[in-house]
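Quick one before lunch.
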Amino acid sequence: MNKVITGMDRSKSYRVYLAVTTTMAEDARLIHGTSPTATAALGRVLTAAGLMGLMMKGNDAKLTVQFKGDGGAGEILATSNAKGDVKGYISNPMIDPPLKPNGKMDVGAALGIGMVVVIKDLGLKEPYIGKIDLVSGEIADDLTAYFFISEQQSSAVALGEIIETDGSVRAVGGMIVQMLPDAKEEAVEALEELLDRMPPVSTLIDETCGASAGMTEKAVMKALMDKAFNGMPDEFKVEALELRDIGWKCDCSAERLEQVVISLGKKELARIIEEDGEAELVCQFCRSRYHFDREHLERLLLEAARKK
Ligand SMILES: [Zn+2]
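Model of the zinc ion complex:
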């Protein structure tokens, strides 16, 4: 299942974005052939990028989240838009450091010391760019710090997964809770208390989806939100606002890759035609292969020459 439910509490103190992205994380695993730790890391970044994309307004808005560290995973990058389309990659899909003493996958060790960069292109002249040093490299902590430092937004980010022993994805999802400008102090306190004792989001998803036979996706998402916020005082109870789509989608195309080839310039293109006589480009997001034969390259060379 891939779905997001949004909500707001009765006192308008905080807003919730809650996602189940199990199918999207499994799609990414199959495309990139990721190790369990890389599946977890990429699943978290894709989920967070998807949620942050849905927070934006405007059909042309685009968001990029890039994690980069010295720990061997290399770069983990995801892009998304306001419609919930998400794609991404990890430079080293085989990274698989030893488990932590508590038996959990060590995404922080896979990333190491580094930065997270968020780029929001809202269709204005300049994109918004925010970057901070990684806090733990566990993704959720880093994004909580990002929201606070770069966007002066008090938020709580939770991301998590359950991976089967065969490496496939059993449950993946995440949640972003944002405090609103006129938040009531009692609501903030009650929320902090609740978040402290809330089970991991992956456990909540696994339990809810495991007992969802015969339910609509809307009912499942509603049940998940009720379960997560169970115990909030009545006046700060979350009420569901909307159900949104989220999922893997790569928008690469032969036309787009042609533009990449043309941008190499006529000198480089002439060299490729002369030396190789053909070219193959692989989309770094979905691994689709695009083959260009000599005739095709010569046509693109003419276009490149016309541009200069
Ligand atoms: Zn692609």
